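User: tokens in, sequence out, please.
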């Protein structure tokens, strides 16, 4: 994700990761130990666990239509073919 987001990584780390929803704890949960996947829309799906209770959780980040991320997403998808 840091490679794709570049200069926006810090904002993602500070605003997105700690602002997730846990099915067990509710909103305002932080996702940890996550891994990102790019879906068919080039959006990122983070799969990890809740920092509070350890429950599995996902976070969807709509980055696929952001033009400044397109080049990096294309490079990653090409490498994974």
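Assistant: Sequence out:
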């Amino acid at each position: 994700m840091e490679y794709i987001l570049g200069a926006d990584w810090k904002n993602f780390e500070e605003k997105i990761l700690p602002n997730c929803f846990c099915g067990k704890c509710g909103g305002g949960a932080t996702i940890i130990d996550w891994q990102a996947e790019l879906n068919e829309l080039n959006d990122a799906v983070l799969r990890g666990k809740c920092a509070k209770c350890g429950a599995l959780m996902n976070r969807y980040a709509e980055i696929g239509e952001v033009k400044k991320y397109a080049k990096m997403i294309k490079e990653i998808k090409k490498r994974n073919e």
